[in-house]
Write a structure and sequence with these properties.
This protein is an alpha+beta fold and 399 residues long. It is built from 11 helices and 20 strands. The radius of gyration is 21 Å and the shape is globular. The chain binds flavin-adenine dinucleotide.
Amino acid sequence: MTHKTDVAVIGGGIIGLSTAYRLTQRFPEKRVLILEKESELAIHQTGRNSGVLHSGIYYKPGSLRAVNCREGKLAMQAFCEAEGVAYDVCGKVIVAVDDSELSRLQHIFERGEANGVRCEMIDAERLKELEPHVRGIQAIHVPEAGIVDYVGVCEKLAEKIRAGGGEILTNAKVTRITERSDSVIVESDAGDVEAACLVNCAGLYSDRVTKMTGQKRPAKIVPFRGEYYKLKPDAQHLCRNLIYPVPDPAFPFLGVHFTRMVLGGVECGPNAVLAFAREGYSKFHVNPRDLFESLTYPGFLRLAMRHWKMGCGEMWRSFSKGAFVKALRRLLPEIRKEQLVPSPSGVRAQALLRDGSLADDFLIQDSDRIVNVCNAPSPAATAALNIGRIIVDKLAERF
Ligand SMILES: Cc1cc2nc3c(=O)[nH]c(=O)nc-3n(C[C@H](O)[C@H](O)[C@H](O)COP(=O)(O)OP(=O)(O)OC[C@H]3O[C@@H](n4cnc5c(N)ncnc54)[C@H](O)[C@@H]3O)c2cc1C
């Protein structure tokens, strides 16, 4: 069966759903169709993330991440408020535990100010008032950071898309794309689609789908698994809200933290290890093609050679609960091993350039009829409604 539509969107994660939602809001007369390979929506990065509403404090001023995070967060809060999705602007602390971290903490604080984030440098005494069990010598308090139910957001987005006349096809893995002068033909497990325009929001597969569209992919996706533990109920009082370490500028996504989840519980983690499959949520899940591609990609080999020590540390924490707990104790010294139980892991779509550097900003590229979201790392969930708006701006030029 061939479906006809104005805009086809590949991927039913938060970026694909936000794009389709923005489209139905702005152009109610346009037909939109989402193709999702799974039987459910939002079960990959979006459904397995930390559930944090990021404030935008970390990102380079003027970058797409900084701008979209600020605007997207406000839009996300307004959406949750209007649609009754759980969220809480509970605040967060970024904690320096020794002198060596103070200059980096200062740098983040200055970035936060440059990005217009409401934040305050606080001393150890004030930190104790906010998070009584944390050890630290200085910290940044970010009252406007928060937590949210991203799966709940996606359920509402899907509801609104359908109510606006949009269609969502599940079990519809896209296998081939042909761009013609007057349309794009998308072949999928659920039939073919003829669309005037196509948007690729395939997350962990965004590079392969970009290649299918005939465009050059700017970076390759290498999957990194983040493993989490959660605190048993008797230890949850140790973390009131969000407790983060000072990040290493070279690896901002590294460094275990504590996150109170909006639907209850406290998660601790993640570490970051190479996943042997793009959707490899367990240590033993291996996909030979995915693994071969990662291990033979010059970008990954360069990264691994440069940072093998750090990589070994992350792997060690994957196998040793004791080592994981030791990392957590830097921030919360009272935590004991028996207070932690494993929690579901997530896999990050890390876009890597051939020279081994991480592509850290959002990356969207387009041709006549196709928009490819090539990189949508954290805080893309926070920023999703704004990313969706930008994509619709691009589509509007083609209508
Ligand atoms: C461990 C972890 C923690 C994070 N924490 C946060 C956080 O606290 N706050 C925050 O803002 N961000 C966070 N992020 C980042 C955020 O979750 C992602 O940036 C965001 O979810 C990306 O959404 P997406 O729609 O691009 O990808 P996804 O959610 O992965 O969705 C892509 C979809 O495309 C589908 N798909 C792929 N290929 C095909 C195909 N060929 N045909 C059809 N469908 C296809 C997939 O099945 C999937 O459903 C985190 C990420 C991870 C991994």
